[in-house]
Amino acid sequence: MEFHERGICDSATPPNDQEETTDLRRGPWTRDEDLLLLNYVSAHGEGRWNSLARSAGLRRTGKSCRLRWLNYLRPDVRRGNITLEEQLLILELHSRLGNRWSKIARHLPGRTDNEIKNYWRTRVQKHARQMRCDVDSKQFEDMVRAVWMPRLAERIHEQKKPPRSLESSCSYSESVETQLSPPLQLPPPATAPESFVSDVGGGWMELEQGESMWSVEDIIWLQQQL
């Protein structure tokens, strides 16, 4: 009987599989591991990550290798903070795609879905909590479209202006350009819908569908944070 039970146990969990599972590395990647993965993918390309991990001599899971490559080691991965243009695009895409980070990342070359998700959680969700509302609510979506996105567009336009020290030296060329092409027309400042912001004298107003309420002070505060 003892022999029979041992036989069942052995057939259910092959010794080789047990050894591979217990021998896998966990935790942060080392420089040597990064070099192994980089060299292997450079020589053979991406493939089935489980077999790639074994072939490259890495004691890591296929998932761990895939995430390490996509989020850190790919040559086209962008470094640095999310730019204003990227922030504006993320807000626009999220309004249409929701939390589909990989689909959003396809529209931002060099950015990973992990980076975009982290930006959303550390920046957007933080503001939603400070504004005392649900980040997925219609209320917050209206605020993003009425205040946040226009403010980002304004800052992007300001960044593209030439420094004041160059304005005088460029005055002649600018005058010629204005004769050749019409000046850039900025859209009028976005205002929140009537069902969204109350008259200043009223202070507070109820939003549609029983949602919580915004004050003018809330809107001004958010504008100052962006």
Automatic annotation (TrEMBL):
<dbReference type="InterPro" id="IPR044676">
    <property type="entry name" value="EOBI/EOBII-like_plant"/>
</dbReference>
<feature type="domain" description="HTH myb-type">
    <location>
        <begin position="78"/>
        <end position="128"/>
    </location>
</feature>
<feature type="domain" description="Myb-like">
    <location>
        <begin position="21"/>
        <end position="73"/>
    </location>
</feature>
<protein>
    <submittedName>
        <fullName>Uncharacterized protein</fullName>
    </submittedName>
</protein>
<dbReference type="GO" id="GO:0043565">
    <property type="term" value="F:sequence-specific DNA binding"/>
</dbReference>
<feature type="region of interest" description="Disordered">
    <location>
        <begin position="1"/>
        <end position="25"/>
    </location>
</feature>
<keyword id="KW-0804">Transcription</keyword>
<dbReference type="GO" id="GO:0003700">
    <property type="term" value="F:DNA-binding transcription factor activity"/>
</dbReference>
<keyword id="KW-0539">Nucleus</keyword>
<keyword id="KW-0677">Repeat</keyword>
<dbReference type="Pfam" id="PF00249">
    <property type="entry name" value="Myb_DNA-binding"/>
</dbReference>
<keyword id="KW-0238">DNA-binding</keyword>
<dbReference type="GO" id="GO:0005634">
    <property type="term" value="C:nucleus"/>
</dbReference>
<feature type="domain" description="HTH myb-type">
    <location>
        <begin position="21"/>
        <end position="77"/>
    </location>
</feature>
<feature type="domain" description="Myb-like">
    <location>
        <begin position="74"/>
        <end position="124"/>
    </location>
</feature>
<dbReference type="InterPro" id="IPR001005">
    <property type="entry name" value="SANT/Myb"/>
</dbReference>
<feature type="region of interest" description="Disordered">
    <location>
        <begin position="177"/>
        <end position="197"/>
    </location>
</feature>
<keyword id="KW-0805">Transcription regulation</keyword>
<dbReference type="InterPro" id="IPR017930">
    <property type="entry name" value="Myb_dom"/>
</dbReference>
